[in-house]
Amino acid sequence: MALLKTNDLGIAFGELKAVDGVNIEINDGELIGLIGPNGAGKTTLFNLLTGVYKATSGNIEIVGIDINKKSTPEIVGLGLARTFQNIRLFKELSVIDNVLIAMTGKQPVGVLSSIFRLPNFYKAEKNMLKQAEE
């Protein structure tokens, strides 16, 4: 089963077809690149895959689950998220610290545990650090 699959995926903004007829299948263990000139639709495709934009044609599946009607947080919950090209956000932090910040939404502790640094906060942080290093 494909980790990510699109079938005839497309989006139009009025009369302009920004992405049209994209078919992708990415399987476990594959490393895929997407290249093309400015204006080719690369960012628009990523916005479709991550739920920022909703497709006007075709469909997207993550591990066999149709995500066309799912919200961005639901898509992230399935393991697909995007980042933005801004290397200056946390330049004073290490790579691991930046990864930990990105994983904060998955931390299974509440606000009070985080504010008061209760023991379960440190346990969750240690587990996230282990995941980030893998």
Key attributes of the depicted protein:
134 residues, single chain, four-stranded antiparallel beta sheet, 32% helix, alpha+beta, elongated
Task: Give an overview in words.
The protein contains five helices and four strands. The chain is an alpha+beta fold and 134 residues long. It has a four-stranded antiparallel sheet, covered by helices on one side. 10% of the residues are buried.
Task: Give a brief rundown of this model.
32% of the residues lie in helices and 22% in strands.
Task: Provide a count of the helices.
Answer: 5
Characterize the biggest β-sheet: 4 strands, antiparallel
How many β strands by DSSP?
4
Percent of sequence in beta strands: 15-25%
Structural class per helix/strand content? alpha+beta
Strand order in the largest sheet? 2-1-3-4
Task: List low-confidence stretches.
Answer: none
Mean pLDDT: 87
Note the run of SSEs as H and E.
EEHEEHHHH
What is the molecular shape? elongated
Helix content: 25-40%
N-to-C terminal Cα separation, in Å? 24 Å
Radius of gyration: 18 Å
